[in-house]
Amino acid sequence: MPVRQTLPPLRPAVSGRESRIFRAESAAATWHGACDGGFGNTASDFSPVSLNGIAASALSALRTNSTALGVVSNNVANLNTDGYARRVVNQQTLAAAGQLVGVDIASIERVASQYLSQETLSAGASAANYDTQAGFFSQLNGLLGAPGDNQSLASQLNDLSSAYATASQAPSAGASRTAVMSALNNLASTFSNVSSTISSLRTQVDQQAVNTIGSTNQLIKQIYDLNQQIRSASASGSEPSALLDQRDVALSNLSKVMDVRSTEQSDGSVIVSTGDGMNLVSNTYAQLSYGGGATNGSYGNITMQDINPQTGQPIGAVQALDPHLSGGSLKGMIDMRDQVLGGLGDSLGSLAQQTALAFNAQANANAAYPPPSSLTGRNTGLLTGDALNFSGKTTLAVTDSSGKLVQRVDVDFGAGTISVNGSVVGATGTTVGSFVTALNSALGANGTASFSNGTLSLTAAGGNGLVVQDDATTPSSRGGVGFSQFFGLNDVFKAQSPSVTATGLSASDASGLAAGGVISLSLKGPDGDIVKQVSVTTAAGMTVGNVVSALNSAMGGAVSFTLNPDGSLSSANSALYSDYALNVTSDSTQRGATGLSFSQLFGLGSGAQAGQASGFAVASQVAGNPGMLGFGQPQITGTSAVGDVVLNAGDNSGAVAMQNVLNSSRSFAAAGGMAAQTASLSDYVASFYQNVSTQSNSVTANQTTQDDRLAEAQSRLSSNSGVNLDEELTNLTTYQQAYAAGARLLSVVGQLYDTLLQIQ
Predict the structure, then answer these.
(1) Confidence class of residue 108 from pLDDT cuts 50, 70 and 90?
(2) Are 312 and 284 a contacting pair, CB within 8 Å?
């Protein structure tokens, strides 16, 4: 029979919980001793565990599962928190001296995927690009309206044609003139309003880019600062998860501005760069700059420069950011401002120019009844010393108020003669000034001719009127247009003067530019990259050809300028720069007293074409004076003599011809994404609106595609890193049950202690 072990002597009496535990421990020791010795079992048969060990294990379960429940609680609480990545608890066995002694937290892991995060950033940048453009297209479509709207360009052109059709039925009626004048003003206003709409929207986009730069700089600096905090936390052994969440939010917001790449480093920081690898955040951070505003229709670059974090001062070279943007709202703004709206401005300007040329060509072949006593043209940019450079024949006629011929002055530019009433009275002269002198002499007492600041004026004496008629067989021509149209004597529209017509200047003509003037040009790519910035300084005695040669030399073959036979200046980009835009950044030259710079005279630079629409208006000599409108045509023949009626009150031939202008074919150069084409004004207007619609639809389609891509990327990222409520509720139940089990175990230990104490 086993012998019961003698119990050890009791410790000095203590009170309360300590006494209870002491007595329980003593009883437990006696019990284990009896079992070991009294019942003959070996350690291999039974490995006793102390109640204290069981209690410690239970307490570790309580601590571990309590922490896990806290993690689950945080996950659930941040279910809708932007940028929050769920945390998971990794548990491990707690051991001592090779024996299991409970459970512990191995780590609390922030679930994140670099690949999925980068895909989401990239998708966000693409979506933001098209979202931005789509928003501005929505505004543009609302402002432009549909082609069939009453205030559209198409409608206003049709209304003008209809007004002339009505006038052809009653050419003598005052109401007919008033209706045509109203239609002319409405069309001019519509051109101006559409141009203003495009220009205002460009300004709005540009200002939004300025505002975006400020917030972007804050994001870049925030990411840099968070990098430093994450480095510090990681080095000290602290948990940086909250900082990582904040950085992910900042990166996400930055990706909406531009396409960015983030590369995680071993210390927990990230290097942030543009899509093509230009660093924004590393050991330094970039600062962007952009002041906004256009110069001659051209906008500058957004620039960036590194900042020394210690001093806050810029370091390194200033670089253009525009060429490095491949996505984001900034890319959308720049493309909308420069490519879309800039292109629409150019195509609208082309339409305005051709509209002015078409209607003015016919208006200068017409004549008002009764004929006006004076005709004042536009600023042609010519000087009195310029070569006359006219060919063909034209006739200036002085008539009385009933249309009877008072005097005719026939000019034969080819023969270089001026005739009065059939008799040659002198030579035309070889310069503009000498011609005006000869013409003034030929008019004699019946009228005067003057030329000042590039503008020709003719005035009849004695209450008589003036009409101009080109020869039917060999009409006059300079720069491809007749005498009256070149000087704008009977224009109904004016566009940006004087480039609505060619100059008629030749390479040998004096440039008329004072010494020391500077023409500055830049060549800007579709991505905003400015590859050339050149300047040409004028010298005394330069010819037009000399200036053109200097421009070609400065551009070094990137752009070639050609002075055409009609005196227009064209430019052609080399293959390497085929899609680059030529911009006039400044021009301080001036052609004599005309006040026109070289670039204004020849319509040089990307802003010149758009200027045709912004400057579109009813000609000053017609505006407010319906009596100046010509509904008939002069009928001066070779045999017409003084006293003959050469202008009839009821003549409607001019009004009929004006009615047909809308559907006559014109040659349109390539402009704003619209190809070079031969089309009527009405067809080109339709193409203009179709171009807007096509671009808008394309952007909308891309927006849908990229928004879907972003949604898919966000879904994948959320599945990996986001909080899944069902999963968290499962974890909650699991950890809650484990906690309850640990608590129950501790309760059982307590009961065993009580039992042992009772035995004791």
Answers:
(1) confident
(2) no
Alpha helices in 256-370, H assignment, sequence order: 328-334, 342-363
Q: What pLDDT shows up at residue 296? A: 78
Contacts of 616 (CB under 8 A, 6+ apart): 188, 191, 192, 195, 352, 355, 356, 493, 494, 495, 496
Q: With beta carbons less than 8 A apart as the criterion, state whether 272 and 223 touch.
A: yes
Burial of 760 (C-beta count, 10 Å sphere; 0-12/13-18/19+): middle
Q: pLDDT tens-digit profile of 624-669?
A: 899 999 999 999 999 999 999 999 999 999 999 999 999 999 999 8
Alpha-carbon distance values, 521 to 38, 536, 551, 586 (Å): 109, 9, 9, 7
CA dihedral 226, 230, 236, 238 (to 10 degrees): 100
Residues 6+ apart with CB under 8 A from 280: 220, 254, 260, 272, 273, 274, 286, 304
Alpha helices in 8-82 (DSSP H): 16-38, 51-77
Q: Using CA atoms, how far apart are residues 134 and 118, in angstroms rounded to an integer?
A: 24
Mapped onto helix, strand or coil, the DSSP state of residue 576 is helix
Assess contact for 644 and 638: CB atoms under 8 A: no
- What whole-number distance in Å separates Cα of residue 305 and Cα of residue 285? 8
Reading the block at residue 211, the tokens are: 């505002």
Contacts of 119 (CB under 8 A, 6+ apart): 713, 716, 717
Tell me which H or E stretch contains 698. Answer: helix 681-721
pLDDT (tens digit per residue) in 415-427: 999 999 999 999 9
The answer to whether 549 and 601 are in contact (CB under 8 A) is: no
Q: The tokens of 6 are what?
A: 């003698």
Residue type at position 747: S
- Span 275-302, pLDDT tens digits: 999 999 999 999 999 998 888 788 889 9
pTM: 0.85
**Angle, vertex CA 76, rays to CA 75 and CA 81, nearest 5:** 75
- Residue 188: which of 619, 628, 664 has the closest Cα? 619
Give CA–CA dist 37/39, Å, rounded: 6
Q: Which residue has the tokens 């972007």?
A: 216
- The Cα 379–Cα 498 span in angstroms is 6
CA 335 to chain centre: 4
> What pLDDT was estimated at residue 17?
40
C-alpha 12/C-alpha 23 separation (Å) is: 11
- Cα separation, 367 vs 398, whole angstroms: 12
Which residues make beta-bridge pairs with 431?
387
State residue 49's pLDDT score: 59
Distance CA 627, CA 371 (A): 8
User: Cα torsion for 336, 341, 342, 344, to the nearest 10°?
Assistant: 140
How open is the CA angle 242-248-253, to the nearest 5 degrees?
A: 130
Banded model confidence at residue 526, pLDDT cuts 50, 70, 90? confident
